[in-house]
Design brief:
The complex is a heterodimer of chains A (about 290) and B (about 325). Chain A has about 290 residues and is mainly alpha-helical. Chain A contains eleven helices and two strands; from the N terminus they run ααααββααααααα. Chain B has a two-stranded antiparallel sheet with strand order 1-2. Classes of the chains: A mainly alpha (about 290), B mainly alpha (about 325). The interface between A and B is large, with 46 and 48 residues.
Chain lengths: ~290, ~325
């Protein structure tokens, strides 16, 4: 296989992966626990988008917005009702709770939609060929969506009051509290945004292939790998980490079968924790 | 029906062994493990492959499985030794998934998703199924008893006391001149080894293993067993495992009575029910049925110090 082609695929896969990874890392920086519920929210978003697209006939862009909105709302609700009470009991209890939540939600999806594979209703289109590299129009659209969403997230964090408040809480919760920032509202926005991005990412992943209730769970390891490689809590790090993981997964195809992609993510986690535990852009890890 | 009940007891015994292993790392040392199913798979596959390919005796195979699981646990613990505890959570979860991927793909070694069948069982050829189940129940109970005694000894030994101190505040342990990291590593690999042993027991009991058996849900079952029974308490681990199997198997009989659902939906409802139970138990009864025994007869236990959950939030 052509290495350039693999790198191009990796960049496109990585830019999709960056969306849920940003969500994860944003939630982590505010709420301070690894939220494994991101997996089921990616599934919820993928299915919400599927219902909008295949049942109600919306085109892809509005469906993506619906995926973001629904999974964000589910994330907000589950966090408020289920995970929030765990936080006083410690990081690890909350993390275990989020794992139970992810399996629970996944089964809610399974209860309604079954285990069948589902595909989105997409217009057929021919690959674009640039300098011998095949690019799928859908992948290019996904890339464009990812870039726009990333720009919006950065704009929100750096230019709006709420975004700045969120960064302040992430940076120093106590100081932010003294300055009168309502940490409850910031936590809610982080949950909505994080899980919304997870859902959007879930649908973007599904657009490339097909979806089933395990879609989110299968992507969980790459999402975590992206966030950990970039440095948990760093948003530019999540983008860089996602690109690294995306390209590494594609290049691994030179030597390994495609089903080893998740294992590549695990190896990346082990390597970065051994060599540079704070991640590419992170500040602290211990 | 008798065979079914006996086999459920065997499975409960194996869960109890896993819960004991989890108790060493989580209950005593406060180390999270979200991928204990990976250790179980490592133990099960090692034992199955060794006994099948090299025809080594079953007890040796199971021991080898336990050793491999313990070694892998040591590596995971080593990589995350200086990091915050949630890195251990991420790494263990990733490890379990990776084991499953490897087991599904390395067909030459593990026969892929078809799984390994025809794993030797002790005296299986000479016994009726009923006798075989009974014999295996005896073996599992013996192993469980032996491990229970060992874990009790660990728990009350100086080593166990240091582990609890590590769990409650590893800074204090370091000040007292103990190497907290080395204690964590030992606890984690002992726990992983016990879980790997349970995996081996399972493989030789059912004679069949496949990657599908080692799903994250199993991790939650064992966690739930320990939580229900009482984290930090070996007796609790055993009681909790028995109770969880009772609920799990009981729900198998209840779900078919729910009208208008397909088998897949029934399975979804059972998993949903179990994860909801875990959330509720985790939330409201963190001490479990049998709380951790208190060390000191006079000094009262601090109100919030419930095992495993008092791990500091920083």
């Amino acid at each position: 296989m052509n290495v350039l082609q693999l790198i191009a695929n990796g960049i496109m896969a990585g830019s999709i992966l960056a969306i849920p990874a940003i969500g994860l890392t944003a939630m982590y920086s505010v709420l301070r626990f690894p939220n494994f519920a991101i997996a089921s929210h990616a599934t919820v978003g993928a299915f919400a988008g599927w219902v909008a697209n295949s049942v109600y006939g919306f085109s892809v862009l509005p469906s993506l917005a619906i995926a973001l909105l629904i999974s964000g709302l589910v994330g907000l609700l589950t966090d408020e009702l289920i995970l929030k009470p765990f936080r006083s009991a410690g990081v690890i209890t909350t993390a275990i709770g989020s794992l139970a939540l992810t399996i629970g939600l996944e089964n809610v999806v399974r209860l309604f939609f079954g285990n069948d594979l589902r595909g989105y209703d997409l217009p057929l289109a021919r690959d674009i060929i640039v300098g011998g590299i095949h690019l799928g129009p859908q992948q290019l659209n996904n890339l464009a969506v990812s870039i726009v969403v990333m720009a919006l997230v950065f704009g929100f964090l750096f230019f709006t009051r709420m975004g700045k408040a969120m960064r302040a809480v992430a940076d120093n919760p106590r100081l932010a509290d003294i300055k009168g920032i309502d940490s409850q509202i910031v936590a809610r926005i982080a949950s909505f945004m994080g899980m919304g991005l997870a859902g959007l990412g879930g649908m973007l992943i599904g657009l490339d292939s097909s979806i089933d209730p395990l879609t989110g769970f299968r992507s969980m390891l790459p999402i975590f790998a992206a966030a950990v490689v970039g440095g948990l809590g760093s948003i530019p790090g999540a983008v860089a980490g996602a690109l690294v993981i995306g390209i590494a997964e594609e290049l691994s195809l030179l030597a390994l079968p495609a089903s080893y992609k998740s294992a590549v993510a695990f190896i990346a986690i082990m390597l970065i924790l051994t060599l540079r535990p704070q991640g590419l852009f992170g500040r602290e890890a211990n | 029906m008798e065979i079914y009940i006996i086999s459920m007891c065997v499975v409960a015994g194996i869960y109890a062994v896993m819960a004991l292993g989890l108790n060493v790392m989580w209950g005593m040392a406060g180390l999270v493990n979200l991928g204990l199913v990976g250790s179980a798979a490592a133990g099960a596959y090692t034992s199955a492959i060794l006994t099948k390919t090299f025809a080594i005796p079953i007890p040796l195979g199971i021991m080898a499985g336990a050793i491999v699981a313990a070694a892998v646990g040591a590596v995971l613990s080593l990589v995350t030794r200086r990091l915050k505890e949630h890195y251990l959570a991420i790494v263990t979860l990733g490890f379990a998934e990776t084991i499953r991927i490897v087991a599904s793909n390395e067909i030459w070694l593990t026969n892929g998703t078809d799984g390994i069948s025809g794993i030797a069982g002790p005296f299986r050829a000479d016994l009726t199924p009923f006798q075989y189940n009974l014999v295996y129940l005896g073996i599992v109970l013996l192993v469980l008893l032996g491990l229970y005694v060992c874990c009790q000894r660990i728990s009350y030994s100086p080593f166990g006391r240091v582990l609890r101190a590590v769990r409650d505040d590893d800074m204090v342990v370091s000040v007292a001149g103990k190497n907290a990291q080395s204690f964590k590593l030992k606890a984690f690999s002992i726990g992983s080894g016990i879980i790997g042993l349970a995996g081996g027991l399972y493989a030789h009991y059912t004679s069949f293993i496949s990657p599908d058996l080692f799903v994250p849900l199993l991790t939650l079952y064992v966690k739930l067993s320990l939580l229900v029974g009482g984290v930090g308490n070996n007796r609790g681990a055993v009681v909790g495992a028995a109770l969880i199997i009772l609920i799990l198997e009981g729900s198998r009989f209840v779900v078919p009575f729910i009208p208008y659902i397909s088998p897949a939906q029934g399975a979804a409802i059972r998993e949903l029910f179990l994860s909801a139970t875990l959330l509720i138990v985790l939330r409201f009864r963190v001490t479990g049925l049998i709380p951790e025994p208190h060390d000191h007869p006079v000094i009262p236990r601090p109100g919030t110090a419930t095992a495993g959950t008092s791990i500091k939030a920083s």
